[in-house]
From TrEMBL:
It is found in: Cell membrane. The chain crosses the membrane at residues 9-29, 35-54, 61-84, 90-112, 151-167, 198-220, 232-258, 278-296. It is a multi-pass membrane protein. One of its GO terms (molecular function) is transmembrane transporter activity. This is ABC transporter permease. PANTHER family: GUANOSINE ABC TRANSPORTER PERMEASE PROTEIN NUPQ, SUGAR ABC TRANSPORTER INTEGRAL MEMBRANE PROTEIN-RELATED. InterPro entries: ABC_transp_permease (IPR001851). Keywords: Cell membrane, Membrane, Transmembrane, Transmembrane helix. The keyword Transferase does not apply. One of its GO terms (cellular component) is plasma membrane.
Length: 311
C-alpha cells in the first residue's frame, strides 16, 4: 500500500473518530464524578439539530456552533435537574431523554422544515472550516493525515488534553474526582455534591453538543434523522475501557474510528452492505466482552491472592 493511500486512510480515521472522541470525553467527565453517562447520544442529536437551525437562521456558522453547544449543555442540565433535584433514577432518566430526543428532534425538524428526514433541502447551513497546515504538506503520511482536517478534529484532540489537565490540576477537577470517589466524604469537607453534579453534566453536555455540531456542520452540512447513529454509546464504551481517562478515551475512540474507516472502505467492494454497516458496532461488542473477561480474571486473581495470604 502506497504512502498516499495510508495517509488517506488515516485521514479518514481521524475524521471519523472526531464525534466519537467528543462522546468519549462527555462520558469521561461524568465517570470521574461517579456518574454513568449514556445520554451523550441525546446531547449530540440536539447539538446537531440546533446548530444547523441557528446556522441557517443567522447565516453565521459560529453562532450555529454556539447554538449547538448550548443545546448540549441544556440537555445535560435537564438530566441533572431530573436526577439531582428531582431524585429520579439516573438510568431511567437517561433512557427517557434518549427516547424523547430521538423523536423530539424529528418532530422539531418537521415543524420547522416540513421534512421528517433531512434539513438539506430547506435550511441552508454552512460547514465549519478546514484548517490548512502548509508546513505538513510534504511530510509523508503524517502530512496527508493531519492537513486540511476540520477545525473540530483538532479541537477534539485539544479538548482531551485540556480535560485531562482540568481533572488533574484544577481545584474544580479535584472536587469532581473527590465526589466521584466518595460523595459523603466530599460533602463533609465542604464540597457541594449537587453543585458538582450540575457542573459535571453541563461540561458533559458541552462536549456532547460539540460532537453533534461536528456531525451536522463538519462531517456533513445538514441534519439528518438519527444521524448520530449510536456514536454516543460507542463513546461511552471508549471511556469505560480506560475508566474515564480523557487521553485514553480519545485513543480508544480512535480505535473505533479505525473500524468505521474500514467499514467505509468495504462499502466500495462487493461485501454485503448490512454486514459492513454492522462492523463498528460488532467491534464495540467484542471489545466490551474482552474487557469484561479481563476484569473478571483480574478480580478472581486478587481474591485468590488475598486467600493465599490469609492461609
Amino acid at each position: 500500500m502506497s504512502a498516499l493511500r495510508i495517509g488517506s486512510f488515516l485521514y479518514s480515521v481521524l475524521r471519523l473518530s472526531t464525534p466519537l472522541i467528543f462522546a468519549a470525553l462527555s462520558a469521561a467527565i461524568c465517570e470521574k464524578a461517579g456518574l454513568f453517562n449514556m445520554a451523550a447520544e441525546s446531547m449530540m442529536l440536539w447539538g446537531a439539530l440546533i446548530g444547523v437551525m441557528v446556522n441557517g437562521w443567522t447565516g453565521s456558522v459560529w453562532l450555529g456552533f454556539l447554538g449547538g453547544c448550548c443545546a448540549g449543555v441544556v440537555t445535560g442540565l435537564l438530566i441533572a435537574l431530573a436526577t439531582v433535584k428531582g431524585k429520579a433514577d439516573l438510568m431511567l432518566a437517561q433512557i427517557a431523554i434518549n427516547l424523547a430526543s430521538g423523536g423530539g428532534t424529528i418532530f422539531m425538524l418537521y415543524v420547522v422544515t416540513g421534512d421528517k428526514s433531512t434539513s438539506a433541502m430547506t435550511i441552508k447551513s454552512q460547514s465549519l472550516p478546514k484548517i490548512a497546515l502548509p508546513f505538513l504538506k510534504n511530510v509523508p503520511i503524517i502530512g496527508r493525515m493531519l492537513n486540511n482536517q476540520n477545525l473540530l478534529t483538532y479541537g477534539a484532540i485539544l479538548a482531551a488534553i485540556l480535560l485531562m489537565i482540568f481533572i488533574k490540576r484544577s481545584r474544580t477537577g479535584v472536587h469532581i474526582r473527590a465526589v466521584g470517589e466518595n460523595p459523603n466524604a466530599a460533602e463533609s469537607v465542604g464540597i457541594s455534591v449537587s453543585r458538582t453534579y450540575f457542573l459535571t453534566w453541563a461540561i458533559s453536555g458541552l462536549l456532547g453538543g460539540i460532537g453533534g455540531v461536528f456531525m451536522s456542520m463538519g462531517y456533513t452540512s445538514a441534519f439528518t434523522k438519527n444521524m448520530v447513529a449510536g456514536r454516543g454509546y460507542i463513546g461511552l464504551c471508549a471511556s469505560s475501557m480506560v475508566r474515564g481517562n480523557p487521553i485514553g478515551a480519545m485513543l480508544c475512540a480512535m480505535v473505533f474510528g479505525v473500524s468505521d474507516a474500514i467499514a467505509n472502505q468495504l462499502q466500495l467492494t462487493n461485501a454485503p452492505v448490512d454486514l459492513v454497516m454492522m462492523l463498528p458496532y460488532a467491534v464495540t461488542i467484542i471489545v466490551l466482552i474482552i474487557i469484561s473477561v479481563i476484569k473478571i480474571r483480574t478480580h478472581v486473581r486478587k481474591i485468590k491472592n488475598k486467600a493465599s495470604q490469609v492461609v
